[in-house]
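Support request, priority: normal
Reporter: lab tech (M.K.)
Component: structure prediction queue

Hi team, I submitted a job for GTPase Der from Hoyosella rhizosphaerae yesterday, and the status page still shows it as pending. I've pasted the exact input below so you can check whether something in the sequence is tripping the parser. The sequence length should be 432 residues. Please let me know if I need to resubmit or if it's stuck on your end.
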Amino acid sequence: LPVLAVVGRPNVGKSTLVNRIIGRREAVVEDVPGVTRDRISYEAEWNTKRFMVQDTGGWEPTAKGLQQSITRQAEHAMRTADAILVVVDATVGSTTTDEAVARILRRSKAPVILVANKVDNAKLDSDVAELWNLGLGEPFPISATHGRGTADLLDTVIGILPEKPRDPNQFTGGPRRIALVGKPNVGKSSLLNKLTGDERSVVHDVAGTTVDPVDSLVELGGKVWRFVDTAGLRKRVITASGAEYYASLRTRSAIESAEVVVVLIDSSQPITEQDLRIITMVEETGRAMVIAFNKWDLVDEDRRLQLDKEIDRDLVRIQWAQRVNISAHTGRAVQKLVPVMDTALNSWDTRVPTGRLNTWLRETISATPPPMRGGRLPRVLFATQATTRPPTFVLFTTGFLEAGYRRFLERKLRESFGFEGSPVRVNVRVRE
Ligand code: GDP
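Reply from support: The job had stalled in the queue. We restarted it manually and it finished. Here are the results:
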């Protein structure tokens, strides 16, 4: 289950909040004596979604002092949790310890929500606003003892928790996974042969990795990569009927197994519906993508001009994907695929820390506010990056945001943070 960590100074109400979240079903499921006695995890459920709550409330200050023990708590949460609630006491305001914790959590790769607790009545609203200064986005006012705001908070938590916990081995464990896809005869097996042509580049084992026999390990640019489902490229599987359907299933499964997908397009021929369907499949699956225009050796000046027009017409939506003009036949620019795949994977892995994201959000929105809806201006309260691979952002708003404005924000996100080669998702959650 995904893990929600709750951090903060003593007496800010962390335990009360944890009890609220778990509905006082204090089922301790992890309490390993001597090792992690200072962290207890509970199982919780909200709107049918289950997750673990990691309570750091019992953490005693070490001899080195309170600040250090809380700093450690925050760092631990950053390493292990899928989302973090940092709780501050709104009646006290931000203390130097809160600021130290915020400084750490601003670098967090997991999304962070700033919770302003003890807001038992609306009189405290101005105190809450002051907590923006922690640089963790909009403070989320709640009263853990009265339950005020906790349902909204949990809705938000559910919105940003990934389905599955971070699995450090899922993708980072071995060589990065590449799929070569494209319609039949576009040159996939020729490209694979070119890349592995030099026998020394074919690797037979990598420490700590079990390699599926249908995959190939290939050393390129000083690194080992795993090309998925290359058996299908090496040995032609042609069934008399339904060959196309079969090929399309195979393409889909290769895309799903990959982290970065190289879509081959035959540049000597007009771009086809089938090419575009494959690209859409990659987009929808949310994989990093590189577009390789193959058979470039056959492209003359006229064809090149025509291709530019086809690209403008058909590929505007995916301008974020880098294009490389290659020839699997002559070997032209084939090695250039490696840095381009690297860039795409880096973008795919990127996480924008919550503090930076919200600074960006405030600046972007004040320069170009969202259009009015029903005579009202929807307010975008804050943003957090829920996941990477691909980068997925959640915007919390007070009203519906038009698709056009969402696309505008996505474009601005790309302008500010890059993400070349990776899809980016922007989801909106309306908070009542
Ligand atoms: P696959 O079905 O995508 O694996 O395509 P193949 O690799 O089998 O290639 C299909 C045909 O296109 C073969 O006859 C190749 O020799 C040819 N081909 C592949 N890449 C190139 C290229 O860059 N230039 C030229 N001129 N021919 C190519």
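The chain has three domains: 3-160, 176-349, 354-430. Residues 3-160 form a domain with the Rossmann fold fold (CATH 3.40.50.300). Let us know if anything else looks off. Ticket resolved.
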